[in-house]
Task: structure prediction
Amino acid sequence: MTSVITGDIIGSRQQKSKHWLEDLKKILNSFGQTPSQWEVYRGDEFQVEIKNPEDALLAAILIKAHLRTIKSDARMSIGFGDKTHTADRISESNGSAFINSGELFETLKKQKVTLAIRTADQAIDEKMNLMLQLALTFMDNWLVQSAEFVAAAIENPTLSQEELGQKLGINQAAVSRRQKRAQFDLVLNLDRYFRTQIKQLTAS
Result:
């Protein structure tokens, strides 16, 4: 099983293209090679394969956090399933993970939801998407400082608050405040629960 994130930049036409585009490419670069593992196409749409499905939600949250640091955001669908055809470009690869991600992405455009998942199990999807909608009530509103903290914390999971503070150029008390403001403990709990659900899916 693999996972595919399909997304686009919200309100990209109102932004200076080069600014967010370079940042987006930098973010996606950390997930692997382009164009086999990630690709930006049609101006503001992107696709990235996260080969370990358990990491997919945190990867999408990391993309969101990085974009929020530049006052931007993305609409993303995460599809889970198989990969039946591997092409040189990810946009030409195929399988149920790609179909689930692509079809869900088209429905997100019509709704005002910025992140959702689709697996082969409807019960998991319903539970997870409800939780995600609740989490998005604060994730969609992360301010720059909160988003910077979230991105740094996800990318450096072993660092203490003090060490994260050194990275961000702030003291430990300020790190603690940002962690609370970003509701980061809830994000980690959501990610833990998501991982148990995906484990069950891969085991069945």
Q: What stands out?
A: The first strand starts at residue 2 and ends at 9. The mean pLDDT is 93. Residues 184-203 form the longest helix (20 residues).
